[in-house]
Amino acid sequence: MKPDPSPRPKILILVSGQGSNLQALIEASRERDYPADIVAVGSNQAKAPALAKAAHANIPTFVIEHGHYGSREEFDGALMQEIRRHNPDLIVLAGFMRILTEGFVRAFRGQLVNIHPSLLPKYTGLNTHQRALNAGDKVHGVSVHFVTEELDGGPIIAQAQIAVIPDDSAETLAQKVQAQEHVLYPIVVRWCCEGRVQLGPDQVLFDGQALPR
Ligand code: GRF
């Protein structure tokens, strides 16, 4: 058999929770012109509902439970080994609730993207919706960024905004932000797989042009 001359890019998705972003990516990847395939979904949580969503879509899953490892380095080493078995072009963090070691992040530089529920650089870390409310922000949103050694601090690829209205609570903001996440993430993942978005030495390149940091 002849080797495939232009193999489709392979995406591997890491999850810890509900998997609504995973579901949005699964649905997008089923569109006829989507340029990539989801080859595996991995989790650090055996009970993550996201795993059932992957299994339902016939996508291979794996679990590496962080509690079984003595250190972050050992956990990340096991995760890296499993990821390499699938040889992905892009690793998509979709609600993956682990801080990755520098070694892991460097090993996959330019191939690792994350979605974060705030307009970075505002509100890295947790409780982003409540923090936006407490600050009286009129605009809130979501960011997709390359993962680098700095937590939630890698170069931003794209953001989507929502308006904050006086009646909003952390819950309503979470719903509005998630609705935007489900649109934005499949688009950005598509751009990465098409080679339109790349991580340059210090910033994102979009169609070869450096985006402002
Ligand atoms: C999303 O809000 C994402 O921004 C954050 O974790 C959440 C994951 O939600 N990183 P889900 O598991 O995709 O439903």
Structural key phrases:
6 helices, 213 residues, 3-stranded antiparallel sheet, alpha/beta, binds 5-O-phosphono-beta-D-ribofuranosylamine, globular, 7-stranded mixed sheet
In short:
With 213 residues, the chain is of the alpha/beta class.
Structural notes for this entry:
With 213 residues, the protein is α/β, with parallel strands linked by helices. Helices cover 33% and strands 23% of the residues. The protein contains six helices and ten strands; from the N terminus they run βαβαβαβαβαββαβββ. The strands form two sheets. Strands 3-2-1-4-5-6-7 form a seven-stranded mixed sheet, with helices on both faces. It has a three-stranded antiparallel sheet with strand order 8-9-10. Helix 1 links the parallel strand 1 and strand 2. Helix 1 runs parallel beside helix 6. The radius of gyration is 17 Å and the shape is globular. The mean pLDDT is 96. Bound molecules: 5-O-phosphono-beta-D-ribofuranosylamine. 5-O-phosphono-beta-D-ribofuranosylamine binds next to helix 1, strand 5 and helix 6.
Rounded to an integer in angstroms, the radius of gyration calculated over CA atoms is 17 Å
Number of beta-strand segments: 10
Estimated structural class: alpha/beta
- Span from first to last CA? 47 Å
Total helical elements: 6
Tell me, what's the shape? Answer: globular
Hey, roughly how much beta strand do the residues contain?
Answer: 15-25%
Largest sheet: 7 strands, mixed
Strand line-up of the largest beta sheet: 3-2-1-4-5-6-7
